[in-house]
Amino acid sequence: MRYLKVAWHHTSPDDPVIIWSEIGEDGYEVRKVEQFADGRLGYADASTSVGGSELGEFPVPEVATIAQQKEFSPETISAKAFARKWIAARSPKMKSAKSSNRAKVRLRTSKGASKRNLTVLKTRRGWSVMAAGSRRVIVTLKTRDAALEWAREALRTTKSSSTRIAVTGEKVSNVARERKK
Question: What is each CA distance from 162 to 90, 101, 143, 154, 158, in whole angstroms?
Protein backbone atom coordinates (compact mmCIF):
# COMPACT_ATOMS: atom_id res chain seq x y z
CA MET A 1 0.00 0.00 0.00
CA ARG A 2 1.00 3.59 -0.54
CA TYR A 3 -0.61 6.70 0.87
CA LEU A 4 -1.01 10.06 -0.78
CA LYS A 5 -2.23 13.52 0.15
CA VAL A 6 -3.01 15.87 -2.75
CA ALA A 7 -3.94 19.54 -2.41
CA TRP A 8 -6.11 20.61 -5.35
CA HIS A 9 -5.94 24.36 -6.06
CA HIS A 10 -9.23 25.57 -7.57
CA THR A 11 -12.27 27.72 -6.76
CA SER A 12 -15.15 25.26 -7.31
CA PRO A 13 -17.13 24.63 -4.09
CA ASP A 14 -18.33 21.28 -5.48
CA ASP A 15 -14.86 19.72 -5.69
CA PRO A 16 -12.55 18.76 -2.81
CA VAL A 17 -9.51 20.88 -1.96
CA ILE A 18 -7.55 18.06 -0.28
CA ILE A 19 -7.66 14.35 -1.14
CA TRP A 20 -6.15 11.59 1.01
CA SER A 21 -5.84 8.21 -0.74
CA GLU A 22 -4.89 4.70 0.28
CA ILE A 23 -3.63 3.03 -2.89
CA GLY A 24 -3.33 -0.72 -3.43
CA GLU A 25 -0.50 -2.59 -5.14
CA ASP A 26 -2.50 -2.48 -8.41
CA GLY A 27 -2.49 1.36 -8.33
CA TYR A 28 -6.23 1.72 -7.62
CA GLU A 29 -7.65 3.56 -4.61
CA VAL A 30 -8.73 1.30 -1.76
CA ARG A 31 -9.99 4.09 0.51
CA LYS A 32 -10.28 7.86 0.05
CA VAL A 33 -11.07 10.92 2.17
CA GLU A 34 -11.94 14.27 0.57
CA GLN A 35 -12.01 17.64 2.32
CA PHE A 36 -14.03 20.46 0.81
CA ALA A 37 -13.42 24.21 1.15
CA ASP A 38 -16.21 24.54 3.74
CA GLY A 39 -14.47 21.95 5.98
CA ARG A 40 -16.79 19.00 5.41
CA LEU A 41 -15.33 15.58 4.78
CA GLY A 42 -16.48 12.86 2.41
CA TYR A 43 -15.09 9.36 2.22
CA ALA A 44 -15.33 6.20 0.15
CA ASP A 45 -14.19 2.59 0.12
CA ALA A 46 -15.27 -0.47 -1.87
CA SER A 47 -18.67 -0.62 -0.14
CA THR A 48 -19.32 2.95 1.07
CA SER A 49 -19.63 6.37 -0.50
CA VAL A 50 -20.38 9.34 1.79
CA GLY A 51 -20.52 13.06 1.06
CA GLY A 52 -20.25 12.66 -2.69
CA SER A 53 -16.85 10.93 -2.53
CA GLU A 54 -16.18 7.93 -4.77
CA LEU A 55 -13.13 5.83 -5.48
CA GLY A 56 -11.33 6.67 -8.74
CA GLU A 57 -12.06 4.61 -11.85
CA PHE A 58 -8.42 4.64 -13.02
CA PRO A 59 -5.09 3.84 -11.36
CA VAL A 60 -3.55 6.72 -9.40
CA PRO A 61 -0.41 8.09 -11.10
CA GLU A 62 2.92 8.38 -9.28
CA VAL A 63 3.63 11.52 -7.21
CA ALA A 64 6.02 12.96 -9.82
CA THR A 65 3.39 12.64 -12.56
CA ILE A 66 0.71 14.35 -10.43
CA ALA A 67 3.16 17.15 -9.47
CA GLN A 68 3.61 18.06 -13.16
CA GLN A 69 0.06 19.50 -13.14
CA LYS A 70 0.09 23.00 -11.63
CA GLU A 71 -3.28 22.67 -9.88
CA PHE A 72 -2.11 19.71 -7.75
CA SER A 73 0.39 19.59 -4.88
CA PRO A 74 0.93 15.91 -3.99
CA GLU A 75 2.91 14.42 -1.11
CA THR A 76 3.47 10.92 0.17
CA ILE A 77 2.10 10.37 3.70
CA SER A 78 2.34 7.56 6.25
CA ALA A 79 -0.27 4.87 6.84
CA LYS A 80 -0.77 6.35 10.32
CA ALA A 81 -1.49 9.84 8.92
CA PHE A 82 -4.06 8.37 6.52
CA ALA A 83 -5.65 6.31 9.32
CA ARG A 84 -6.11 9.44 11.48
CA LYS A 85 -7.89 11.25 8.64
CA TRP A 86 -10.00 8.16 7.84
CA ILE A 87 -11.16 7.91 11.47
CA ALA A 88 -11.91 11.65 11.58
CA ALA A 89 -14.03 11.41 8.42
CA ARG A 90 -15.95 8.36 9.65
CA SER A 91 -16.70 9.67 13.13
CA PRO A 92 -16.96 13.46 13.07
CA LYS A 93 -16.73 15.14 16.45
CA MET A 94 -17.81 18.56 17.53
CA LYS A 95 -15.62 21.32 16.16
CA SER A 96 -14.29 22.52 19.51
CA ALA A 97 -13.93 21.31 23.06
CA LYS A 98 -15.48 24.58 24.30
CA SER A 99 -18.72 23.83 22.37
CA SER A 100 -18.79 20.31 23.79
CA ASN A 101 -18.22 21.54 27.34
CA ARG A 102 -20.97 24.18 27.03
CA ALA A 103 -23.35 21.51 25.77
CA LYS A 104 -22.53 19.22 28.73
CA VAL A 105 -23.21 22.11 31.14
CA ARG A 106 -26.60 22.61 29.44
CA LEU A 107 -27.27 18.92 29.93
CA ARG A 108 -26.35 19.05 33.65
CA THR A 109 -28.59 22.06 34.30
CA SER A 110 -31.63 20.73 32.43
CA LYS A 111 -34.67 19.36 34.34
CA GLY A 112 -34.41 15.92 35.93
CA ALA A 113 -30.64 15.93 36.27
CA SER A 114 -30.40 12.58 38.10
CA LYS A 115 -32.70 10.62 35.78
CA ARG A 116 -31.99 11.82 32.32
CA ASN A 117 -33.33 10.54 29.03
CA LEU A 118 -32.11 12.04 25.79
CA THR A 119 -33.70 12.30 22.38
CA VAL A 120 -31.68 12.42 19.17
CA LEU A 121 -33.77 14.14 16.49
CA LYS A 122 -33.17 14.79 12.78
CA THR A 123 -33.43 18.51 12.12
CA ARG A 124 -32.68 20.83 9.20
CA ARG A 125 -29.28 21.67 10.71
CA GLY A 126 -28.22 18.04 11.38
CA TRP A 127 -28.90 15.67 14.29
CA SER A 128 -29.87 17.41 17.54
CA VAL A 129 -29.57 16.00 21.05
CA MET A 130 -32.33 17.14 23.44
CA ALA A 131 -33.38 16.32 26.98
CA ALA A 132 -36.45 14.08 26.63
CA GLY A 133 -39.70 15.94 27.29
CA SER A 134 -38.04 19.23 26.41
CA ARG A 135 -37.72 21.03 23.10
CA ARG A 136 -34.42 22.60 24.21
CA VAL A 137 -31.57 21.59 21.92
CA ILE A 138 -28.42 20.73 23.84
CA VAL A 139 -26.15 20.20 20.86
CA THR A 140 -26.44 19.65 17.07
CA LEU A 141 -24.01 17.46 15.13
CA LYS A 142 -23.62 16.61 11.45
CA THR A 143 -24.39 12.88 11.58
CA ARG A 144 -26.68 10.53 13.50
CA ASP A 145 -23.72 8.43 14.66
CA ALA A 146 -21.88 11.49 15.98
CA ALA A 147 -25.00 12.61 17.89
CA LEU A 148 -25.50 9.16 19.41
CA GLU A 149 -21.83 8.95 20.39
CA TRP A 150 -22.02 12.40 21.98
CA ALA A 151 -25.22 11.49 23.89
CA ARG A 152 -23.69 8.26 25.25
CA GLU A 153 -20.53 10.06 26.33
CA ALA A 154 -22.52 12.93 27.89
CA LEU A 155 -24.67 10.53 29.92
CA ARG A 156 -21.56 8.71 31.09
CA THR A 157 -19.60 11.85 32.05
CA THR A 158 -22.53 13.61 33.76
CA LYS A 159 -23.12 10.51 35.91
CA SER A 160 -26.76 10.16 34.94
CA SER A 161 -28.55 7.16 36.46
CA SER A 162 -30.32 6.59 33.14
CA THR A 163 -28.74 5.74 29.81
CA ARG A 164 -31.86 5.82 27.68
CA ILE A 165 -31.48 7.53 24.33
CA ALA A 166 -34.46 7.72 21.96
CA VAL A 167 -33.80 8.33 18.28
CA THR A 168 -36.31 10.10 16.07
CA GLY A 169 -35.19 9.59 12.49
CA GLU A 170 -35.77 11.01 9.06
CA LYS A 171 -39.06 9.13 8.52
CA VAL A 172 -40.75 11.22 11.19
CA SER A 173 -39.46 14.41 9.58
CA ASN A 174 -40.76 13.25 6.20
CA VAL A 175 -44.22 12.54 7.67
CA ALA A 176 -44.29 16.06 9.15
CA ARG A 177 -43.42 17.54 5.75
CA GLU A 178 -46.15 15.52 4.03
CA ARG A 179 -48.77 16.84 6.44
CA LYS A 180 -47.81 20.44 5.63
CA LYS A 181 -48.52 19.94 1.91
Answer: 28, 20, 23, 11, 10
Q: How far apart are the first and last CA of the chain?
A: 52
Give the C-alpha separation, 48 to 31, whole Å: 9
CA distance 120 to 170: 11
24-34 burial: b if 16+ Cβ within 10 Å, else e: eeeeebebbbb
**Overall residue count recorded for the chain in this entry:** 181
Q: Report residue 142 CA to chain centroid gap.
A: 6
The per-type count for the chain, helices as H runs and strands as E runs, is 5, 10
pLDDT tens by residue, 75-123: 999 999 998 888 888 765 544 444 445 555 555 555 544 456 777 888 7
In whole angstroms, give the CA distance from residue 49 to residue 120. Answer: 24
pTM: 0.53
Instruction: Name the band, by pLDDT with cuts 50, 70 and 90, for residue 175.
Output: very low
Give the pLDDT confidence score for residue 9 in this predicted structure.
Answer: 93
Count CB neighbours of 162 within 10 A. Answer: 13
pLDDT score for 166: 66
pLDDT, residue 53, reads 86
